[in-house]
Design a protein that fits this description.
It is built from 13 helices and 2 strands; from the N terminus they run E-E-H-H-H-H-H-H-H-H-H-H-H-H-H. Helix 3 (about 70-85) packs across helix 10 (about 260-285) and helix 4 (about 95-120) packs antiparallel against helix 6. The protein is mainly alpha-helical.
Length: about 375
């Protein structure tokens, strides 16, 4: 192990190319569960309208109702994982096509399947009781993951995927031509900074200039720093990440002086340090990731896409049965059922779909060659 001032080289402990970033993968699953629990606090009032024992729902809202920091993780982790896998392909034109195909298989196929399922359910007695069926324009924007307002989407949580596709486009540009990608990323950063400074950019959707988009670049920077060996000791990084997170929580509750964009950047920096700390510890085998957390990471995307709609549907179903249960039973039951359905959807639908699409793409590539 080579040690310099605040610089460590863990190359001798690396498990080479078989490394899957299991620690980041597991953390993605845990954060997806936290997002689900946060949304559970939103639907808790609906539970209390049908079941007694308000206390459980009230305590759940107090514990999990703090909204900041969760979504920011997914932006940083996405940038980190994409860059970690594809940094070596920057400037190689063929890699851009391969990258986009992999992303379409990994995200877009599952998303479209869930989207179509939700639209079909919406035509049945189980769907859309309290809100109208989505307009045609909303369905089109949802299918394309592109539009002027990412919150105008069939799936309430899909707004983050609008940002994700923007990042994929920028990263694909870098894979196609490194210099082009650098200029596009620089222009994107200038656009975001200008918007944060209060300057309007006519003709550009607001989410293009959201500070959340910078968090993708935080993740890319973290992957690049790890690749170069510019890594601080994991314990120092972990302590800095915890202190930053605690400061942001305290500022939010006690002062609330920072604008939302600055808070997001602060959380992005904290998550980037946490991810680099975890990856350094994993590579040096300081930590080992339990299998159940890896499984949770595997189902995180399906859980993220389906959890809010599943919670609403389960509440409607329980209300229809007129079964009166204490909220202390209903809230944990809803959480367990939602995670269970996500695991089943991942194993029975998402994995087979990905395998099928990969086989078709590889077969097409073989035919072309």
């Amino acid at each position: 192990m080579t040690i310099a001032f605040f610089r460590f080289d863990y190359a001798e402990a690396l498990p080479s190319h078989s490394d899957r970033a299991l620690s980041v993968h597991a953390l993605r699953g845990l954060v997806a569960v936290l997002v689900m629990l946060f949304h559970l606090t939103i639907v808790a009032p609906a539970i209390d309208s049908h079941w007694a024992d308000f206390g459980m729902a009230h305590h759940a809202a107090a514990i999990f109702g703090f909204p900041a920091g969760r979504i920011e993780f997914f932006f940083v982790a996405s940038g980190f994982l994409v860059a970690r896998r594809h940094l070596d392909g920057i400037g190689m034109r063929g890699e851009a096509r391969s990258f986009l195909r992999r992303r379409l298989i990994g995200i877009y196929a599952t998303y479209c399947l869930v989207l179509v399922g939700v639209l079909v359910i919406g035509l049945t007695p189980l769907g859309y009781r309290s809100v109208p069926y989505p307009a045609a324009s909303t369905i089109v924007h949802s299918l394309l993951l592109f539009g002027t307002d990412p919150h105008d989407s069939v799936l309430p949580v899909a707004w983050t995927l609008f940002h994700e596709l923007l990042f994929y486009a920028v990263f694909a540009a870098a894979l196609f031509n490194g210099r082009l990608g650098g200029w596009v990323a620089a222009g994107w950063t200038v656009l975001i900074v200008a918007a944060m400074a209060g300057h309007d950019v006519p003709g550009v959707p607001d989410y293009f200039a959201s500070p959340l988009n910078l968090l993708f670049l935080f993740g890319v920077a973290g992957a690049w720093m790890l690749r170069r060996g510019w890594v601080v000791r994991p314990d120092v990084l972990a302590a800095a990440a915890l202190l930053a997170g605690a400061a942001l929580v305290g500022e939010h509750h006690a002062l609330s002086l920072l604008p939302r964009g600055s808070q997001s950047l602060g959380w992005g920096l904290a998550w980037a340090m946490a991810i680099m700390s975890l990856m350094t510890s994993e590579r040096s085998r300081i930590i080992r990731v339990p299998r159940f957390l890896v499984t949770l990471g595997d189902v995180s995307f399906m859980l993220y896409l389906t959890h809010l709609l599943l919670l609403v549907q389960l509440i409607q179903l329980l209300a229809w049965t007129h079964v009166k249960l204490p909220t202390g039973v209903v809230v944990p039951m809803l959480a367990v059922l939602t995670i269970g359905v996500a695991i089943a959807g991942h194993r029975l639908v998402e994995l087979p779909l990905r395998r099928h699409l990969r086989r078709r793409l590889y077969r097409q590539n073989a035919d072309i060659m």
